[in-house]
Amino acid sequence: MKSLVDKLEKERILSRDEFKQLLSEKNEYLFERARAVRHEVYGNEVFMRGLIEFTNYCKNNCYYCGIRAGNKNAQRYRLSRAQILECCELGYELGFRTFVLQGGEDPAYTDFVEIVKDIRTAYPDCAITLSIGEQSYETYKTLFEAGANRYLLRHETANDAHYKQLHPEGMSLENRKKCLWNLKEIGFQVGCGFMVGSPGQTMDCIVDDLRFIHELQPAMVGIGPFIPHKDTPFKDCKAGDFQLTLRLLAVLRLMKPDLLLPATTALGTLDPQGREQGILAGGNVVMPNLSPVDVRSKYMLYDNKICTGDEAAECRSCMQWRMVSIGYDVVISKGDPICIM
Ligand code: 5AD
Ligand code: FES
String of b and e for 114-145 (b: at least 16 CB within 10 Å)? Predict the structure, then answer.
């Protein structure tokens, strides 16, 4: 097992069987090396991103997701342009220098490009990250030219058959991947990612994910455990494995030492110390919530999501405190990846 960790650190990729073996059991050395590599590149710094969940309308119907169009129990909301800008203003005061605008695929925002331009003009020293799903090449390009720098689009699974188990007709892995390549070509810093333990996922699917990530070479990878939502077709499925998620974070750190790797809210939902554990496994990003408190509980992708009752300032200081408690430091910075090539 030690030799597999060393091999991964050196070659940044393993064969299918080697990955499966490495992921199959507990391995302290894996975490040790992931932490060491993380410290070589980023020291003890943790980047903070302010997450603004601006709409929970979504035209898609992914089987796992609590804000899927088919969930009639979801109370829908949209933040106005003014409300989004207020979130940024508060975020800036609190020390955020990256704003992540995340939402369902909501065609109602016909002036979205203008919103991005407003943020760009008001905050020239900040990064703007978008996470608004699959769009056309032209839309992505217009958003980039309006001032957005980064784009998060989890691929969800790199295995075609598994993708079909998670999504209804009309959505395809092929288009998902195409979007990611388009975003990269346009010049975005791109983030992909997947859920650990989503229904139907096998170890082979996970290896497919790792190999796809190796091919795409994204700047960021968002992974978190799958957690069932009561109003979805997957309501009776079990949640993803916490330890396996941590192992995957460590593997990703070794595969790409400069990777931006968040310790996600889903990880923090499965375990009260989940985000701390995620950082200790090699993560280097946290994404406290900047959305107005009255909409938070409506952005329920999965059951029991944490941080839904806290003000932005509370989340921010809570996160700082959590990071300090494990020997890390939250920094006020855009938090671009450090180039080590
Ligand atoms: N459990 C965990 N993560 C989920 N996501 C959506 N639904 C769930 C769920 N039930 C993740 C998806 C999506 C991201 C915004 O949230 O990976 O890309
Ligand atoms: Fe919109 Fe899942 S239903 S992303």
Answer: ebbbbbeeebeebbbbbbbbbbeeeebbbbbe
